[in-house]
Automatic annotation (TrEMBL):
Record region (Disordered): 292-318
UniProt xrefs under PROSITE patterns: PDH_ADH (PS51176)
Keyword Oxidoreductase: yes
Species of origin: Corynebacterium callunae DSM 20147
Biased composition, class Polar residues, residue ranges: 302-311
Top-level division of the source organism's lineage: Bacteria
GO BP annotations, alphabetical order: tyrosine biosynthetic process
A Pfam family this chain is assigned to: PDH_C
Bias-annotated ranges (Basic and acidic residues): 292-301
Catalytic activity, EC: 1.3.1.12
Molecular function via GO: NAD+ binding; prephenate dehydrogenase (NAD+) activity; prephenate dehydrogenase (NADP+) activity
Name listed for the protein in its UniProt record: Prephenate dehydrogenase
Amino acid sequence: MTTKDISRPVCILGLGLIGGSLLRDLHAANHPVFGYNRSRSGARSAVGEGFDVSADLEATLQRAAAEDALIVLAVPMTAVATLLDEIQVHAPHNGITDVVSVKTAVYNEIKARNMQDQYVGSHPMAGTAESGWGASMTDLFKRAVWVVTFDHLFEGEKVSSRWVGIWKDVVQMALAVGAEVVPSRVTPHDAAAARVSHLPHILAETLAIVGDNGGALSLSLAAGSYRDSTRVAGTDPGLVRAMCEGNASALLKALDEAMVILQEARDGLAAETPNIESLADNGYRSRIRYEARSGQRRSKESVSPTITSSRPVLRLHPGTPNWEKQLIHAETLGARIEVF
């Protein structure tokens, strides 16, 4: 897949870790891309590195309108509504996607403005605990899953050819930066993200606090297991709040499930003969299944991961009869897709 498969320029609003990394990758591939960053210092740094970036939102959106660019919202959920309002004023007909980690809340903002026919949601499952332009990098999305939504297909009206084109461009953009596209509607996405993205933040914050409460000796003894399990606790607190509070309903269900498991572990440890055999065995098997699906299985002879992903692949032609059924099938399987 090359950026030639993307039919229009890309305009990225917000150049932190995700937006900035996307800008870098598209620029490196020689695809027309420009961006806006609210931080003037961040914008200056990007310009100094040779990127087409502005701190003037109105001018950036006017340019996006003139060039019919695909607009990417790469900002926290708390900033989405304001940007959508600005887009309605300055670039009302442009295709829009986003990279926000919650999808239902974004789609509600889209529907409140009747912008469904120009919007396709997305979410790259990639990142680090760092934020801002300085954290951006090339190849962040290589082999990462990039979710692309398709709820508009089920809203009772035949979708326009323009929407199909926007959907395809979002898919092609993700493929062009090395990601694997997995389709999902917003509700299943948020339920899954609560389990594998947002709950880990809750648990990492908890583990960080418990370790810190142990005092200087605990922190001095902390090694790999503590470091790895608390890594995302180093994420900016505002971003953590935006993710978790924005997906509270789905996250509560996952958290309740985790608390039942933790209570069972506590009961096992409090028994006359302490026993957490079930937790250890089931957790080990679950981790092995994840490694197989994601392509991170390690052989006993090597510490390097080998590519053995069991994620199935489905090929589809957007806009053809029954393609929405193929998307549902891919969602159910957690399959990645290729388009032609």
